[in-house]
Amino acid sequence: MDLSKVTLEIFSKLEQQWLSHYEATPKTRILSIDGGGTTAIVAGAALLHLQDQIRAQTSDPHAHIADYFDIIAGTGIGALLAAMITAADAFGRPLYTAGDAVRFIADNNRQLYKAKRGGVFLRRRRRFSARSMEKALKRVFQRKDEEGRLLTLKDTCKPLLIPCFDLRSSAPFVFSRADASESPSFNFELWKACRATSATPGLFEPFHFASVDGKTSCAAVDGGLVMNNPAAAAVTHVLHNKRDFPSVNGVEDLLVLSIGNGATAKRVNGLGGDCSTSAVVDIALDGVSETVDQMLGNAFCWNRTDYVRIQAFGLGGEGMEAEEKEVLNERVLESLPFGGKRLLQETNGNRIDSFVQRLVATGKTSLPPSPCKVPP
């Protein structure tokens, strides 16, 4: 009898430890940033508030967004934000804050999207200068302490995903730190990844580029045409990448924050039936983003708190600060499992606050910061 009691007590303690470990196992945290537009007002406002809340709730004025996410994905202008907040310094720590990234886009917007000169015959369609954008991107992804070496996908503090569309293979191409770690044939300079995913048809010519060893080449156009909302690509990547995410068996092991960049189709409505290339692209980008949101809403319908979507539809303030406030104060429009949307009482700012509480509760991520660096 005494032996039975001891055995029962031992198994009870083992069960409690197992349950405690199971409940405490942190979810893999994904941050996804949409493409669309050139100013990144929605994404910028959300990222700034996200960083401010992380710092406030951790009492750490130097905390970075990348410290609390396991993987970050971005398309178009969202890819530039994602690449900047994951780019690593010489010690494997984030090179830029969210504020630095948003400020860079605001201060260099005219250079990133500089209109081409039309010469004697003015172009009917507005095009942007690839050379001007490339110059700005090379400057921001250059390592000053290593004789101007350009950063690559391997020089990131967290796994990074950036999609584009390859005209040569007629298929999507996804820049991935996981692939870059496996082979130099899939390692690309960060400025090239950002340039490729931003090559919007009608605004930029297709971008021809190669990997660091020259063995893999692409002719890229805007990744937004197929993955303007890269959240689904990030979820799929994590579910199938057992090397980096061995504990993930299904969506129940994930925590996803998806940040939109405004509803581009809303702006198209005011074009008076314009069916130009840029108008069609805007509609396509918006449709892709909303479709992915609907799909992920269905996948996480059992627990909607594990999937949070930040989007804005009613921008109209005067100036950047006014529009940033509108983004955070706008009420959430949530996708329903079987189609349609519902307007919630909570705002985008409220949702980010609640999400950060869960991030902070589980602590910083434990993934290695970079395949080639170890922090001091």
Automatic annotation (TrEMBL):
<dbReference type="Pfam" id="PF01734">
    <property type="entry name" value="Patatin"/>
</dbReference>
<keyword id="KW-0378">Hydrolase</keyword>
<dbReference type="GO" id="GO:0016787">
    <property type="term" value="F:hydrolase activity"/>
</dbReference>
<comment type="function">
    <text>Lipolytic acyl hydrolase (LAH).</text>
</comment>
<feature type="short sequence motif" description="DGA/G">
    <location>
        <begin position="222"/>
        <end position="224"/>
    </location>
</feature>
<dbReference type="InterPro" id="IPR002641">
    <property type="entry name" value="PNPLA_dom"/>
</dbReference>
<dbReference type="GO" id="GO:0016042">
    <property type="term" value="P:lipid catabolic process"/>
</dbReference>
<protein>
    <recommendedName>
        <fullName>Patatin</fullName>
        <ecNumber>3.1.1.-</ecNumber>
    </recommendedName>
</protein>
<dbReference type="InterPro" id="IPR016035">
    <property type="entry name" value="Acyl_Trfase/lysoPLipase"/>
</dbReference>
<comment type="similarity">
    <text>Belongs to the patatin family.</text>
</comment>
<keyword id="KW-0442">Lipid degradation</keyword>
<feature type="domain" description="PNPLA">
    <location>
        <begin position="31"/>
        <end position="235"/>
    </location>
</feature>
<keyword id="KW-0443">Lipid metabolism</keyword>
